[in-house]
Amino acid sequence: MYDVIVVGTGFGGMTASALLAKKGYRTLTLEAASELGGCAGKFERQSFRFQAGATLGMGFEEGGVFSKLFHELDMSPPPVHLLDTIMDVHFSERTIRYYQQKERWFEEIARQFPKDSAAIVRFFEEMFSLADAMLSFVYKRPIVPPKTIKHLFQAMQKADRKLISATPFLFQSIAKRLQHYGIRDETFIAFLNGQLVDSVQTTIERCPALLGAVALSIFHRGAFYVEGGLSNVVHTIAERYKQLGGELRMRGKVVSIRKQRHWLVTTNRKQTYEAKHVVFNGSIHSIFSILDDSIKRTFSIREEKEKKRPAWGAFTIYIGADDDLQTDSLYHQFIVDRTKPMSEGNQFLLSASAPFDRQMAPVGKRSITISTHTEPLHWWNRHAYDEQKKMLTEQILQHVNKTFPLTNIHVQLVGTPVTFSRFTHRAFGKVGGYIPNGVFSLLSTYSPQTNVEGLWLCGDTVFPGAGSLGCALSGWIVADGISASK
């Protein structure tokens, strides 16, 4: 019998697995696919490597989440490179260069928005201050929402004066803070909407101020290019996990989680494993299909309510092409029409591999990933699927070619929510966590510790939320919680 079974090898699952193995727990990690990482995974075609999802690294700066995690695991991270430019943001009439260093970013603000620059700088300074307050709390890894009086007491202990000073902003939106500073410039607001929808899945009107503050400040703490892609971070943690004695089994999709005296986890290969704790690293959207009915009846998260919580899907184009990109930036955001929603190709992110990165592409070539948000349920109409895919691909590439003509493409593949569902086993291909629906969204987050003893959750649909940092932290919180439950 195992102490812990971890289901899924995304950032949350591998973080929990490695930390628990280091603490001496007998741990089994199960992965349904043939590749680690889930939405942070990779695949290869014709000497090109492509990243399934997010491509920009964070948390490798001194004091950052991954710096602390790798130190905790007594290991070194894969090679990373601090970026001077986070990304270029392209509008039809201009390009905004989003600098990592705060001072250079403020200079760019003065150049791009001279009329409102003083107010915009004050707005960003406020965002940085609020983010400091939030992250000083989140990085202490509290269990939120608290499940017991003990958790509540621990959370209160971890809350410092910075966080208490930020409480007046708890029920304000980013839009409210912009109104406070009198900022109405349409291009700047579209810029913010593009950043927010990529990081926290929503725009200024529905984004809580504290959540938005973290999203708008996190790159300024450190934005990194990871050699070989973010999947290399997961693979490095997995190797350390195995060195520490952890067991990892691939191509074993979990089809049942039930509880008798202990937890029983069964795979599609009809193998059943027993453990004291089970950690589910995946979207909560996907857990109900494998939970035993007796558990679902007592589970505090209700399946019908869960189905109604909105979440995005991703439409992604993977391209292997000659290195003819005439730019020194590796990341580019395109906002086609600033007055329209930031989805379905009107806003998309282009990531290119570094010219020196031979893990990603051969000499003289680049691996390129282009991604836009999309309504996932639309893609399950099989009659319209092919035409919808063709139209959106042509629409996006038409806009790309106006800025970066891709003249010699060797590989071109397209991923839709159907693709993500097939390869990452996420229900309906929903990715990136939940879409915040207003200022009270922070109060509707789910805790990594469930109300069912021994069942834990990590990943982008529980506290502290989506992204590589949030998922890794959720796994760390789970490891802490299991250790404390002895």
TrEMBL record:
It comes from the Bacteria. Transmembrane segments: none annotated. InterPro entries: Amino_oxidase (IPR002937), CrtISO-like (IPR045892), FAD/NAD-bd_sf (IPR036188). The keyword Oxidoreductase applies. It holds the Pfam family Amino_oxidase. The keyword Oxidoreductase applies. Keywords: Oxidoreductase. Its EC number is 1.3.8.2. GO terms for molecular function: 4,4'-diapophytoene desaturase (4,4'-diaponeurosporene-forming). GO terms for biological process: carotenoid metabolic process. Residues 12-482 form the Amine oxidase domain. PANTHER family: PROLYCOPENE ISOMERASE, CHLOROPLASTIC, PTHR46313. This is Dehydrosqualene desaturase.
